[in-house]
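FW: tagging you since you asked about this chain on Friday. Here's the raw sequence from the shared folder, copied in full. Didn't touch anything.
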Amino acid sequence: MELIQSATSWLTEVWRDWSTLIRILLIFVLAIIARSLLLVSVRRVVAGIVSGAKSKAETSGAIARARVVQRAKTMGSVLSNIITWTVFTLAVTMILSELGVAVGALIAGAGIIGAAIGFGAQNLVRDFLSGLFIVLEDQYGVGDKVDLGEASGVVENVGLRVTKLRDSKGTVWFVRNGEILRVGNLSAKSTNTAKKSSGK
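HL: got it, structure written out here
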């Protein structure tokens, strides 16, 4: 009985002296666990889409499979970044609250700084958003012959910020996705024709 009372009093004393540090450690550990579980879920979804695309490669073709894989990996990368930053922000906010920092004023100040940074980097944000929609809407993919206005040629890489293509003279062009106002996909017609002929 005395042992239980002694242990209880010791735990109470430890909690009283180290409660803030213990809560901070718990927040940190739970944030790591939550982030890991969410990232594993995203990776499983992406892996499922990729394996599904591989199994359908014979019927849909290598180009269609490559586009599905590219879209899945792009979405996986975007979701992973969103999860990481969201969990990190929530954990830091909770830790600062445990330390007695006025989180409300800090969030207001961070909002003003974020708005200033966003205004200064609006071209970069526009490039990323445009690249995301290019991939999701499947406007063009690797191997397509496209006309992007200022540059035209065969697409070698589609990134979230820039599109890399090579023209008929061998020149490699890096086109910022935010500057692409129109897309002429010269390969789309041949792809649709091939699909119709295979369907017959």
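FW: Confidence is low (pLDDT under 50) at residues 191-200.
HL: agreed, and The domain at 121-200 is CATH 2.30.30.60 (SH3 type barrels.).
FW: great, closing this out.
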